[in-house]
UniProtKB/TrEMBL annotation:
It comes from Tumebacillus flagellatus. One of its GO terms (biological process) is fatty acid biosynthetic process. The active site is at S91, H197. GO terms for molecular function: [acyl-carrier-protein] S-malonyltransferase activity. It catalyses: holo-[ACP] + malonyl-CoA = malonyl-[ACP] + CoA. Its EC number is 2.3.1.39. Gene3D superfamilies: Malonyl-CoA ACP transacylase, ACP-binding, Malonyl-Coenzyme A Acyl Carrier Protein, domain 2. This is Malonyl CoA-acyl carrier protein transacylase.
Length: 316
């Protein structure tokens, strides 16, 4: 049996995230939120628990919230004695995966996430993003041909039937209109003012990496599949290269899932206040994974039971 811990990205924030976990596991989540509040300079716990959603959705807040809750749930799983064979995270989720790999501390990761979100929001070249879902893989291949022909860019390749386009506003709007006329294609404009994972973000790369260089990141003790190449990595340099590359390059989540299957992973645990990544797995019906979520305390307990049963701790 091989288990992967996978960590969700931006867009999975919701009012109430982390609240039940804090009530049930105050020894873990209490100090974690206190540390986060000190680093961020605002009350992250209050925004997570009470909102409003408009403030929680702000890039700098949402990224910090998702990262913090994911790390907290990972700490609980580690206390239960569960260590994954491999980790991966989608976009922002990669930072929680890096922390879970042992390559950086929670505090250093949150500082980096905070600065990354700030730099993203300050990028001067504004753009837009379009989520595209297709009826089948063949239709998605056609969509990708159109995007390439129009000079568009795929920011996130989520699955065989789902991508997110990212780039200049005029190009994105034109693609949105054109793709909307094709049978079996559902495009949707996202409510963002930045074109994440596109060349429009290039201006933030150097400043981000100068900031990252201040922190003592180290070689991971758990292998990690990184976003840009979907390759299994064990070195610090590969992680640093991917943090930079993630600014402008496509997040290869589809290839990441293919790599997990190739490696023989049979259990996927989505770690954090989300079940988005597990939901994507229906696009790979040929793989019979055991899928686990931790988006609620009840689902967390089911996941713990499943992992203990697989480990032979529980029977039946």
């Amino acid at each position: 049996m091989k288990t992967a811990f996978i960590f969700p990205g931006q867009g999975t924030q919701a009012v109430g995230m982390g609240r039940d976990f804090t009530a049930r596991h105050p020894a873990v989540f209490g100090p974690l939120f206190e540390e986060a509040n000190d680093i961020l300079g605002f009350d992250l716990k209050k925004l997570c628990f009470q909102g409003p959603i408009e403030e929680l959705t702000d890039t700098s807040v949402a990224q910090s919230a998702i990262y913090t809750v994911s790390v907290g749930v990972h700490r609980l799983l580690m206390q239960e004695g569960f260590k994954p064979d491999i980790v991966a995270g989608l976009s922002l989720g990669q930072f929680a995966a890096i922390a879970a790999s042992g390559a950086m501390t929670f505090q250093d990761g949150l500082n980096i996430v905070k600065r990354r979100g700030k730099l993203m929001s300050e990028v001067k070249r504004l753009g837009e993003m379009v989520a595209v879902i297709t009826l089948n893989e063949e239709t998605m291949d056609h969509v990708k041909e159109i995007v390439a022909a129009r000079g568009g860019n795929i920011g996130v390749d989520n699955s065989p039937t789902q991508v997110v386009l990212s780039g200049e506003a005029e190009t994105m709007r034109a693609l949105f209109e054109e793709l909307g006329t094709i049978t079996g294609v559902k495009p949707r404009m996202l409510r963002v003012s930045q074109a994440f994972h596109s060349e429009l973000m290039a201006e933030m790369e150097d400043e981000l990496m100068d900031y990252v260089a201040q922190f003592p990141l180290q070689r991971p003790d758990t292998p990690i599949i990184l976003n840009c190449e979907a390759s299994v990595e064990y070195t610090l340099q590969a992680i640093l290269d991917d943090i930079r590359g993630q600014c402008t390059k496509t997040v290869q989540w589809r290839k990441t899932v293919d790599k997990l299957a190739e490696l023989g992973v049979d259990t996927l645990v989505e770690v954090g206040a989300s079940r988005t990544l597990v939901g994507l797995m229906k696009a790979w019906p040929q793989h019979k994974w055991t899928l686990c979520t931790t988006d609620s305390t009840s689902n967390y307990m089911r996941t713990v039971k499943t992992l203990k049963t697989q480990a032979g701790v529980l029977k039946g």
